């Protein structure tokens, strides 16, 4: 399929990932970036730098900072929502009110607090099953994307034509995008890898070593694949960018916020203090509770997620959480 002409893209959410995607796409498209915090947006416009979330990255002169949500929505050929997952439903609902039937992408990962919904389920509830929409996900640290370092991610949509069209429009030499139609597999991989990263951070922080980390990553991938299959996802998806790729990056990379949560828990810091000092959303914290509940409803065994949930929300100490996993009875792999 040939390349799509220059598009008008509105990006909603000026955190690290929203800013990075806006920066990347502004080289080939007309991009407006909106943020809920008007003071933050004004600072971005004045300094051409997101010092709060992406320090030391000079933002493109072609990137427009738009304070008016309605103007951003109504002027766009594509809506790209990069809020935390907690803001996805409200944002999609308002976009639909302002400019219905505009193609939509989101870059949120996790499970909705209280409902356990995946992002595509939230969007379907708000827009209907025939909406032109999809998710951008995969192994990517915002700071590297913003600096133009080579990255490969996935655009997943139920409609293969939609996925192919927007891959053609957004794909770049240093931000390579691959189409997929397995929304469930892609989103489960993107959600649960954050929980696994907390476990890997705890293990590393306690000095359990590289062997233990490799075991956690490998068994973590098995847990993710089991739940994805129970929800209708494809096993081969979890062997690709949004499964194994995203899991390895988040469990091993020093830029991972969820891994950092685990490292700090291993030091004995409280979760409240960690999240306050982090300054970013760590989706694995809320996702752990929801994925355990979802797994129980589906009858899927997920011991790593259960240990992380117990550590984060039920008072289990870090060393006991990891030792509980390492002491599990032997079984066939």
TrEMBL record:
| Residues that, per the record, bind substrate | 109, 257-258
GO MF annotation list: glycerol-3-phosphate dehydrogenase (NAD+) activity; glycerol-3-phosphate dehydrogenase (NADP+) activity; NAD binding
The record's subcellular location field reads: Cytoplasm
Principal localisation: cytoplasm
Q: Which reaction does it catalyse?
A: sn-glycerol 3-phosphate + NAD(+) = dihydroxyacetone phosphate + NADH + H(+); sn-glycerol 3-phosphate + NADP(+) = dihydroxyacetone phosphate + NADPH + H(+)
Known Gene3D superfamilies for this protein? N-(1-d-carboxylethyl)-l-norvaline Dehydrogenase, domain 2, NAD(P)-binding Rossmann-like Domain
Protein name (Swiss-Prot/TrEMBL): Glycerol-3-phosphate dehydrogenase [NAD(P)+]
The positions annotated for binding NADPH are 17, 36, 53, 109, 142, 257, 281, 283
Q: Where is the active site?
A: 193
- The record lists the organism as Thauera humireducens
Q: In which pathway does it act?
A: Membrane lipid metabolism; glycerophospholipid metabolism
Report keywords, A-Z: Cytoplasm, Lipid biosynthesis, Lipid metabolism, NAD, NADP, Nucleotide-binding, Oxidoreductase, Phospholipid biosynthesis, Phospholipid metabolism
Family of this protein: Belongs to the NAD-dependent glycerol-3-phosphate dehydrogenase family.
């Amino acid at each position: 399929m040939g390349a799509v002409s220059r598009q008008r893209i509105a990006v909603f959410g000026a955190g690290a990932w929203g800013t990075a995607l806006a920066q990347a796409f502004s080289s080939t498209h007309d991009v407006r970036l909106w943020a809920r915090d008007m003071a933050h947006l004004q600072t971005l416009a004045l300094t051409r730098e997101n010092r709060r979330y992406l320090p030391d990255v000079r933002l493109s002169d072609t990137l427009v900072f738009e304070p008016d949500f309605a103007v951003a929505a109504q002027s766009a050929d594509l809506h790209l929502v990069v809020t935390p997952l907690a803001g996805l439903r409200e944002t999609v609902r308002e976009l639909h009110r302002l400019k219905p039937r505009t193609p939509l992408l989101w870059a949120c990962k996790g499970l909705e607090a209280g409902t356990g919904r995946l992002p595509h389920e939230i969007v379907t509830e708000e827009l209907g099953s025939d909406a032109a929409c999809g998710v951008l996900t995969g192994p990517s640290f915002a700071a590297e994307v913003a600096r133009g370092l080579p990255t490969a991610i996935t655009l997943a949509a139920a409609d293969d034509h939609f996925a192919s069209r927007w891959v053609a429009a957004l794909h770049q030499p240093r931000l390579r995008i691959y189409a997929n139609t397995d929304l469930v597999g892609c989103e489960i991989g993107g959600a649960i890898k954050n929980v696994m990263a907390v476990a890997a951070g705890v293990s590393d922080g306690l000095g359990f070593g590289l062997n233990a980390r490799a075991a956690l990553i490998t068994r973590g991938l098995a847990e993710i694949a089991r739940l994805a299959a129970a929800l209708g996802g494809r096993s081969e998806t979890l062997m690709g960018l949004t499964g194994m790729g995203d899991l390895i990056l988040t469990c091993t990379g020093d830029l991972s916020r969820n891994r950092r949560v685990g490292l700090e828990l291993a030091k004995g810091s409280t979760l409240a203090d960690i999240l306050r000092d982090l300054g970013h959303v760590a989706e694995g914290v809320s996702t752990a509770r929801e994925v355990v509940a979802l797994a129980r409803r589906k009858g899927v065994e997920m011991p790593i997620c259960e240990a992380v949930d117990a550590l984060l929300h039920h008072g289990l100490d870090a060393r006991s959480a990891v030792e509980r996993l390492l002491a599990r009875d032997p079984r066939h792999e």
